[in-house]
Amino acid sequence: MFNFPVSAFPEVIRETNYDIAELTLAPESLIASSMIGAMSLACQGLIKVRVNDSLEFNTSIFSLVIANSGERKTSVDRMVLAPFYQRDKIKLAKLDEMKSVHDAKLRAWLEREKGILSQIRKKTIKGECTAALSDALVELQLEKPFLPKMNKLIYNNVTPEALQYAMYHQGSHIGLIADEGANILDRKVMSEFSFINSMWDGVPFSVERKTSPSFTIENGRVTLSVMVQKRPFDLYLRRQGEKARGSGFFARCLIVHIDEQLSTQGERFMDKRPKSAHYLTLFHKRINELLNEKDLQDELFSEKVLSFTPAALYEWQEVYNLIESRIGPDERYANMNDFASKLANNVARLSAILSYFIQGERPIEKEHVESAWLICEWYMDQAINLFGYEEGYYEALILSWLHREFSRSDIRIKYNDIRRFGPNVLRKGKLLDKVIINLEKEKVIEISYLRHGARVVCRGRDFYDNIFTKNPIFEYY
């Protein structure tokens, strides 16, 4: 499953993806990730999704796109997220206007405070009663002018301390978004996993400080949408990869690597046909409607709770059970338990986002669960390609199977027979090729060819004594 399942999107979203693809010639998977981030940012704080009485999730989505230079990351980001950047720009301009007025009011207020304090000081020296002045000082504190909250939507080049402060003082629903994500990966914010994971989980996060007042971020919501080149991402993996995987951060993300099979480079031929932005305009219109709705809802501090229709709930439960069945040692999600444990949650979140974006405050239909599952399943396959290949797990698994087959007196096994009868998890995709190459490199197996060109696998020099036989999964078969 190489190409992103754009057809799984509802019509307006699907056609928007096609519009942007025509305008930018960027990969559809890159565009889709950006669009999912935009819909998450617009919907978070407006809705939650309730699966049953004990399962209720917020709808923030984390997405991570690994794409090298030339994939049109910036073009797509600016096009998809235009309503958010425009709104932040307008708010910043208004804030600059209000700041000069606020500064004048604050100077006047400080003079009044100074006057009352001066009178209190004089009366205190004389031993006179200051109760009335103290009451006046208390009343004056209630009149102190405050600069209105900006509620900035998009942050990128920011430290965790600054982000936490902004979420507490300005607005707790934000997007951590970057089309050149090296800045974010280099910042400490992507190593503060307890904070970033808490925001995905939707739980309060307490910030303890020594030199300033401590505070707690309640009802925080963060949409993470980061596009980064492969080399900075690899460097990040070396520094933080084990910790990020162990903390569950990567498992919370919808991840894709735009490799040579997903890239459109080499296929971007220009033509003179007029390009349509009709659906992109509709997409932006809906984003703005949701942002306006959020401005009104901020005053109420409430989130709508979307539930599944009976058919949709049955479909989600089927998805949950299917995911669970794929976690076994020889199944599709083997060695990916952490990602699989968050997958049904992401399906529920994306179902709610697609539903609310298309039809507003109505129960989530079965079709939206089906769409979300196709999309999240695709991202899971991308995660397997990136992270499922760790610690020699699959080498040990195939070696266990080969050991059994060779013990049945076969001295060589056809490569295609491994595809047909070997471990389930290795029968599809490119993973088997990687595993076989690794085993051959370590002299565990040898590859030879029959007269008609068919590949066969034979025992290598170190078939019975290698690093993979020490993996517990070697005993599986």
Radius of gyration: 28 Å
Q: Total strand count, please?
A: 13
CATH architecture of the largest domain: 3-Layer(aba) Sandwich
Helix/strand order: HHEEEHHHEHEHHEEEHHEHEHHHHEHHEE
Can you tell me the CATH class of the largest domain?
Alpha Beta
Low-confidence runs of at least 5 consecutive residues:
none
User: How many strands, what sense, and barrel or not for the largest sheet?
Assistant: 5 strands, parallel
Structural class: alpha/beta
Q: Looking across the biggest beta sheet, what order are the strands in?
A: 4-5-8-3-9
Shape type: elongated
Strand content: 5-15%
**Annotation field: number of helices:** 17
Description:
This protein is of the alpha/beta class. The protein folds into two domains: 320 residues, Rossmann fold (3-Layer(aba) Sandwich), CATH 3.40.50; 83 residues, Orthogonal Bundle (Arc Repressor Mutant, subunit A), CATH 1.10.10. Helices cover 53% and strands 12% of the residues. It has 17 helices and 13 strands. A five-stranded parallel β-sheet has the order 4-5-8-3-9. It has a three-stranded mixed β-sheet with strand order 2-1-10, with helices on one face. Helix 6 links the parallel strand 4 and strand 5. Helix 12 runs parallel beside helix 14. It is elongated and about 110 Å long. The mean pLDDT is 88.
Keywords:
477 residues; alpha/beta; Rossmann fold; Arc Repressor Mutant, subunit A; 2 domains; five-stranded parallel beta sheet; three-stranded mixed beta sheet; 17 helices; elongated
